[in-house]
Specification:
Distance between the termini: 25 Å
Strand content: over 45%
Number of helices: 1
Order of helices and strands: EEEEEEHEEEEE
Largest sheet: 8 strands, antiparallel, barrel
CATH superfamily: Lipid/polyisoprenoid-binding, YceI-like
Helix content: under 10%
CATH class: Mainly Beta
Radius of gyration: 18 Å
Structural class: mainly beta
Number of strands: 11
Length: 182
């Protein structure tokens, strides 16, 4: 079911320059590690009976650069993203709700390492506006928290006090600036 008060119809593609897909996880109990994916595709498709959001992020585009062995372990390691076997993270919505007051709720299926699980993201929605070049632009900002073990992102190491080096909860943040396609 889709709820929207705007005359939102057609396909809207993410403006790659002005969109992002980030994640954050607690590290060593004292800080939050953040990274992003630079190569992201997303689209919001609205027709008379449905509103859906689809997206993909290339694992190789992760913002981790140094040290190279750390990047390689995160990108290719079986206990992290295993990009050689699973080069993309995928999302496909089952329900998108855009409320008149600007709130958004998206339920769908997130696939990481070939494992698909349901996820709900909430946030805000900006109605379409015309840009200086005659295109319509809308925006979605969404957040969700997931347990990385559900996708077999299982690397862990104990701290001397017995706590975990890396948190199990991961916050996903997606900012999409969407441009209506002709």
């Amino acid at each position: 079911m889709a709820v929207t008060t705007d005359p939102l119809t057609g396909a809207f593609e993410a403006d790659r320059t002005h969109s992002s897909f980030q994640f954050a996880v607690r590290h060593m109990k004292v800080s939050t590690f953040r990274a992003s994916f630079g190569d992201v595709d997303a689209r919001l498709i609205a027709d008379a009976s449905d509103l859906r959001l689809e997206g993909a992020a290339r694992v190789e585009s992760i913002s981790i650069a140094d040290p190279p062995e750390f990047r390689d372990h995160v990108v290719r390691g079986a206990d992290f993203f295993d990009a050689d076997n699973h080069p993309e993270i995928l999302f496909r919505s089952e329900r998108v709700e855009l409320a008149e007051k600007g709130t958004a709720s998206v339920e769908g299926e997130l696939t990481i390492k070939g494992i698909s699980r349901p996820i709900t993201a909430t946030g805000t929605y900006e109605r379409p506006v015309e840009d200086p070049f005659g295109s319509l632009r809308a925006a979605l900002e969404l957040r969700a928290v997931l347990d990385r073990r559900d996708w077999e992102l299982s690397w862990q190491h104990p701290l001397p006090d017995g706590a975990d080096v890396l948190g199990w909860d991961v916050e996903l943040t997606v900012q999409l600036e969407l441009v209506k396609q002709p």
